[in-house]
From TrEMBL:
PANTHER family: MEDIATOR OF RNA POLYMERASE II TRANSCRIPTION SUBUNIT 1
Family assignment from sequence similarity: Belongs to the Mediator complex subunit 1 family.
Pfam families: Med1
One GO BP annotation of this record: positive regulation of transcription by RNA polymerase II
Comp. bias regions, Polar residues: 10-24, 546-560, 572-586, 629-640
Ranges of compositional bias, category Pro residues: 647-657
Function: Component of the Mediator complex, a coactivator involved in the regulated transcription of nearly all RNA polymerase II-dependent genes. Mediator functions as a bridge to convey information from gene-specific regulatory proteins to the basal RNA polymerase II transcription machinery. Mediator is recruited to promoters by direct interactions with regulatory proteins and serves as a scaffold for the assembly of a functional preinitiation complex with RNA polymerase II and the general transcription factors.
Record's protein name: Mediator of RNA polymerase II transcription subunit 1
Bias (Low complexity) ranges: 613-628
Source domain of life: Eukaryota
Lineage, opening ranks: Eukaryota, Fungi, Dikarya, Ascomycota, Pezizomycotina
Domain Mediator complex subunit Med1: 121-535
Cell location: Nucleus
Length: 755
């Protein structure tokens, strides 16, 4: 009888230094699958080592089925009933591994087509933000992407010179290259009238400037971003136009011509105003820009197309020399609306009429002729309603039997920059016929102006605090020396005010744009006021300070005779030394210029400070008698919210200048501001005024950025008469804030001049 011996291992089992694991007669035990082993298999380049037979015979499949654990669409299975039971206790419907902290980054499960399409759209969106580089191939790809025809014209004289011809239904663009560098550009509109082609040269200059190499730029890094943005505006008009039937370039030019007539009429009327006699032309133009129908412009401020400028920072402080005027034109912020066309949106443009091509949106005289017995004072604009533009049926869409139709295009307005407005104004604009979507109440107005840091706690229903410390330059009365005082500004928002950012809208008539301008100015001024008081100063240099020899206007008396002249001494002089940034040698002097010296005294000896001229009511939320107290400057008796899940951390901005550790440094002046927006934006400002007294002023920001004083305890019998003998008025406080556009500067003027 043969004695059984150990079975010989095959060469494959003995090679490569492997240790035999299987004995004769032993049954191989399938490996146990756990979540961590599956994670290792998913991350391993070799994938899972489980055999199909092991998975098929796994008792965990039946156990998971009994426990209502989905396995049919799952990429993870278990060979152990205990592992399946443990996972089913986690109540993970689709193996949501987010509940397992260590496996949050693991991608399990199958990607369906919707998820793949969504991710692909995200990738395309990221890649499309880069418009490419300025080159022959880059410009040709851009034109083809905009669905325009392209053709190359080879020069016989030199092989390095080529011309790219881009053509559409109503435009033609010629771009000349030499060694792959743009040297020339010509834009024309062959089928358009002179009202369109007279602007072609200016538009071409902007496009060429976007493509030409600037000093310090390389052909390898010159990008198409600016050119693409401008050229796309022209391409959209061309794409929506219909050859020989609908020319949208003519439609935009018609609006521009009509609003230009209105602008010239308003400028004429403002120059005839006796109360503004002696003002320079720049000041009068700013009045029209910020209080009337704005200023229409074509191909201005580096952007192709039509725009309407309606607000300008420091519009009451016009530049006083050509050097400053050039800086203001280039750097200071101007708010405008870009006018164009867009496809009609049936969901948003319910009350918006299709585009109409006309040059007569307003009468030639602009104003409506007076009617017999008409007692209404002032001028009324004579808006006209042009006839509808009819186009033939679209045979490609299969509606040839329906006959002529209206264009499926509307006028569009793009707000430059976008503007933050309240919920009430948003709904009011919808009621005026402006095509904007319904507002989703998701963000508060203060969060739009001062966004919460990423990852920070945000609840629009909770109170919020914003703190900012900055240095303010001021000048004591009768002194030429400048001093610096630190302000600790605090903004409190106790009641939620919901808002939204207005970026685009559609409209039927240019009258709708003009009607909404006063409300846009209201919130443009509010945003400017808050940003100047609670945000860091821009890194760009400020206006160059005017010197003592600049004040050579003979229309201004050199003798102090009005309150405005007293304010002018505070505003027109500058610090003798420039404030330099620690990281740059570029001078950033105090942003002060002369502006309050433009109005002359009226017959009563006072200065007209308010445009509306209405009597200022002294009634407000807080009576002056209640406000004059010796308590600290925190005027609101409500305790600031504490830190917690229901009380967010106060938003704090770092000081403008590093605080000194010197013990003799005076304490920062506390300025507390309470923002409410029930019917109109209101600012309740409290600050130390006289010794042991706190000034409390309630201001309301009204249309056209006018500041109305609701209540105050600054002006009383002690300081109502100025040292020059003139009587101070309550509305002077509002006009001062309109001029300086900064709460800190306004506070210092009141403290140093009116105390």
């Amino acid at each position: 009888m043969a004695t059984p011996t150990a079975m010989k291992h095959t060469l494959s089992q003995q090679g490569a230094g492997r240790t035999p694991q299987t004995q004769h007669g032993a049954v191989a035990t399938p490996p146990v699958s756990t979540p961590f082993s599956m994670a290792h298999a998913a991350l391993s380049p070799h994938g899972s080592r489980l055999s199909p037979q092991a998975v098929k015979k796994s008792p965990a499949i039946s156990a998971a089925a009994l426990l209502n654990h989905p396995t049919g669409n799952s990429a993870v299975s278990f060979d152990s009933p205990s592992a399946a039971a443990a996972f089913s206790n986690l109540q993970l419907s689709d193996l949501d591994l987010k509940a397992l902290g260590g496996l949050t980054g693991l991608q399990v499960g199958r990607n369906n087509d919707d998820e793949k399409a969504k991710r692909l759209d995200e990738v395309i969106n990221i890649l499309s933000q880069n418009r490419g580089y300025v080159s022959e191939a880059g410009l040709e790809r851009l034109a083809q992407k905009l669905e325009l025809d392209t053709m190359w014209d080879e020069h016989i004289g030199g092989e390095s010179k080529r011309t790219l011809i881009i053509a559409g239904s109503a435009l033609e663009l010629l771009i000349g290259f030499t060694d792959n560098v743009v040297l020339s550009l010509a834009l024309s509109f062959p089928d358009s009238s002179d009202s369109v082609n007279k602007h072609a040269e200016d538009a071409g200059k902007i496009l060429l400037e976007n493509l030409k190499l600037q000093p310090g730029q390389s052909p390898l890094t010159k990008q198409l971003d600016k050119f693409s943005t401008n050229f796309e505006r022209l391409a959209i008009l061309d794409k929506l136009s219909i050859a020989s039937v609908l020319n949208l370039y003519e439609a935009i030019a018609g609006i521009y011509d009509s609003l230009s007539r209105l602008h010239q009429w308003e400028l004429k009327k403002i120059r005839e105003d006796a109360s503004l006699a002696g003002r320079n032309d720049e000041y009068l133009r700013n009045i029209v820009l910020c209080t009337r129908s704005g200023v229409p412009a074509m191909n201005a401020r580096g952007k192709v197309g039509m725009r309407i400028d309606y607000w300008k920072d420091k519009h009451l402080q016009p530049p006083i020399n050509p050097q400053m005027a050039g800086y203001v034109e280039k750097h200071e912020k101007i708010w405008g609306i870009l006018v164009g066309c867009a496809p009609a949106n049936p969901d948003l443009d319910v009350n918006v009429n299709p585009v109409r091509v006309s040059h007569h949106w307003i009468s030639d005289s602009a104003e409506m002729p007076p009617m017999p017995g008409d007692l209404q004072a002032g001028h009324m604009l004579n808006w006209l309603e042009p006839e509808n533009t009819i186009i033939p049926p679209d045979e490609k869409a299969g509606d040839s039997l329906l006959g002529p139709r209206l264009p499926s295009v509307t006028f569009s307005a793009t707000f430059d920059p976008p503007i933050h407005i309240s919920f009430l104004l948003w709904e009011q604009l919808r009621g005026m016929g402006i095509g904007i979507p319904p507002m989703d109440v998701s963000k508060s107005f203060d969060n739009l102006v001062f966004p919460i840091a990423p990852g920070g706690y945000y609840d629009p229903t909770e109170p919020r605090e914003i703190h900012h410390t900055k240095d303010i330059k001021y000048q004591s009365p009768g002194s030429q020396a400048w001093s610096s005082r630190k302000h600790a500004n605090s903004l409190y928002i106790y009641k939620p005010v919901y808002g939204k950012t207005l970026t685009e809208a559609s409209f039927s008539h240019p009258q709708h744009l003009i009607a909404m301008l006063p409300y846009l100015r209201q919130y443009a001024f509010l945003s400017t006021l808050l940003e100047n008081s609670f945000k860091e100063d821009s890194a760009a240099p400020k206006r160059s300070p005017p010197t003592m020899t600049i004040r050579s206007d003979t229309s201004i008396s050199k003798k102090t005779t009005t309150n405005r002249d007293e304010f002018d001494r505070f505003m027109s002089l500058s610090s003798p030394t420039a404030i330099k940034s620690p990281s740059s040698d570029a001078p950033t002097p105090m942003d002060i210029s002369m502006s309050f010296d433009h109005h002359h005294p009226s017959a009563s000896g006072t200065v007209p400070m308010s445009i509306d001229g209405a009597s200022q009511s002294q009634s407000g939320q807080l009576l002056p008698s209640q406000a004059a107290h010796s308590q600290p400057s925190h005027f609101n008796t409500q305790v600031p919210p504490t830190v917690g899940p229901n009380h967010p951390h106060p938003t704090s901005f770092p000081p403008t200048h590093p605080s000194s550790s010197s013990s003799d440094e005076p304490e920062a002046i506390k300025i507390d501001i309470n923002l409410t927006m029930v019917h109109a934006p209101r600012l309740q400002i409290a600050f130390p005024f006289r010794e042991s007294e706190t000034a409390i002023v309630v201001l309301e920001i009204r249309e056209n950025g006018q500041v109305h004083v609701e209540s105050q305890n600054v002006l009383d019998e002690r300081n109502r008469i100025a040292p020059n003998g003139r009587e101070r008025r309550v509305e002077d406080l509002g006009k001062m804030l309109e001029t300086v556009e900064d709460i800190g500067k306004w506070v210092e003027f009141v403290r140093s001049r009116w105390a």
